[in-house]
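User: Assemble these into one structure.

Assistant: Restating your components, then the assembled model:
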Amino acid sequence: MTNTLPRKALLSSLLGAATLALAVASTSTFAQEKVLRIGMTAADIPRTLGQPDQGFEGNRFTGIPMYDALTHWDLSKYDEASVLLPGLATEWAVDASDTTKWVFKLREGVKFHDGSDFNADAVVWNVQKVLDQAAKHFDASQVGVTASRMPTLHSARAIDAYTVELTTSEPDAFLPLNLTNLFMASPAHWEAKLAAVPASVTDPAERSAQAWRAFAADASGTGPFKMSAFSPRERLEMVRNEAYWDPARTPKLDRVVMIPLPEANARTAALLSGQVDWIEAPSPDAMDQIRSRGFTIYSNPQPHVWPWQLSFAEGSPWLDKRVRHAANLCVNREELKQLLGGMMGIPKGTVTPDHPWWGNPSFDIRYDPDAAKALMTEAGFSASSPVKVKVQISASGSGQMQPLPMNEYVQESLRECFFDIEFDVLEWNTLFTNWRRGAKDPTANGAHAINVSFAAMDPFFAMVRFSSTGAFPPVSNNWGFFGNDEIDAIIADARTSFDDTERDAALARLHARIVDEAPFVWIAHDVGPRAMSPKVKNVVQPKSWFIDIAPMDIE
Amino acid sequence: MFLYLLRRVIYTLPIMLGVAFLCFLLVHISPGDPLVSILPPDASIELQRQLMTLYGFDRSYFEQFVSWIWRALQGDLGTSIATGRPVADEVFRAVGNTLMLAGVATLIGFFFGSLFGFVAGYFRDSWVDRAASALSVLGVSVPHYWLGMVLVIIFSSWLMILPATGAGPGGSGAWVWDWAHVQYLILPAVTMSVIPMGIIARTVRALVADILAQEFVVGLKAKGMTDVGIFLHVVKNAAPTALAVMGLQLGYLLGGSILIETVFSWPGTGFLLNSAIFQRDLPLLQGTILVLAMFFVLLNLLVDVLQTTLDPRIQRS
């Protein structure tokens, strides 16, 4: 008996301790911070002051998570084209009597991360920051990435606290789409940063620059995540905004850490070693290893076109439509897709057949070498007398996927159909600059095509800049001087169709004409591959350049 | 001595100016648009012109150069086009990180290089010598970025015992000398150390072999000194040259390694240069190159002065 009691006591003590340990463990599990760590392809943290740089990767990682725009892309579906949704504006309409004026009704009760109110004055202030050089907060460094994405936006005027009027330089039905790129930064927070600039700095421009610099290091938007720590070129940390206005996008994650990892092997190693939970664009030859270690590869065709843009300048072999069609019929895209480990979408045009702008073109882009050879024979070419074509390409570059192996594959493919392709390989930034100068410029070096991939999110970026005669170089990116009166008329129709259905119908007609005329050899759509730990949940990879981190969770 | 010092400093000024001019010229004559990082190719001509004016790129090269040099003399290296941050802040933060990496890499290289060199020289023509020599040749020959990737695959991806990238769990700004941070330094420092290790090992081996053949060593042996005693004499005689080689290697490593720092995402001058080149961020590129070039000019000045102090014959020549 004497021995039993202590044993019982010991047992109950052990049970008690175990229960306590379990309770503590479960409490700590519940209390454990949910942190998502992302390895970006960018070499630096995209700018955090509201208008990100680094292309759309900037919008993806420091724009959409920390800020809102008047209009948003729907990023909640993986199987439908991403369409426009209300963001900080709840509704909008063009003025029927003057179609250069738009009235936007704003969402009430939205607060910036610093606690100040979002209202019509904030919208006017954010338009002024990039368009009004007389405004004290005008910032030249934000102009380039903003104004070019909304080329017709001219000014803004507050009608009342929650109604704002935006004016365009000409009637432009694309404005609501373009406004997804204008992120709303907090005027009150910027004013506070300006007030903190030492009085010894007297030059207004320098004071403004210093205020923006301070704002970038401690930003304030209205987005689902708030900036919490920033180390230039190394890491950005954001915590959840519990007061976010959209319950569907109020984050479940406690913290998101973003790390720039420009080198593909370094990104893969960081993922495999558990340093990050998600990497952008894993190296194609590491896909199998990544999958075998239990990570998930997400991909989905995105509005990212990887083409050869053709020259219509005098003497170009592409002036013959049969040659243009033959090239489009001679690329075995299925085989190219295998070469890229499956990480490629097969294009049927600039947009996909499920897109509202598809338009049922009559020319079917497919692999049909016999039809291609027949067209080439008809055009006067043969194996012994191939057409000579020079193409400017880059060895690397943002959005260029794997330019060298892909272009070499296309070169070999086209050889079968009597094309003799020569490459003029340029450094990426040089090629990018030349793109604007056009096929007739000396920098084209006599090239008949150029390989620059592009975003096709909105009508201007996707089609207008490549098909309008008004976009001939050096005005915009119609490098090959493609266009005619009929296409210009369709573009004008689309720009002035303020009903969404009518606008989309006009854009569908435009897309069908572009595909039929084939000013491109459409080679690939990027699928935006990203690898994630299986711990990351609620991931939806939409048919978009962007992805919404807000609904994600981590186990 | 003072006059010599003054003369050397005066000689350095035109060199610095020449370096600055070359640096400005090389960056500006390369093709491409200086505003490419903030100006998409679809920007209107009007917008392009507006920004060229706002950033001062519409002025003549001469005006831009004079304005840049004048501001640089006052410690202002301009503002990064891509980030809007002051170039001086970016460069000096990166220099600090590279200094830390290069310092640790040099210490590793010096320790193992000296060890292999002494052992190889002392046991000349034995298998130990051949093994140590093979290691040193390997160190000099192996492409270090390749070695870096192999080390990452082994220690980060497979064994998962060392981090693959970065400069600490909270970034280099929150660096402290504890294991949580030092583990980030190991792989890049080891990778960076292989070249100095190989060079120091080969130098020390040759030195030791040479010293061992000298008459004073025979004399010491004849007097009955133990092997350990003789070894210590050899070390003492070889140390100055080995240290000089180490100093030289440190100088090279301080320039940063674009490849190693990029492979490991180490935020030093190499990583910064890589980023500036790809973003075509001219002020950042100019500023980084200028600071590194000035560093070498000043280092050379320092070496000249030190050598003259130690050996006045140099001053007379």
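The two ends of chain A are 49 Å apart (CA to CA).
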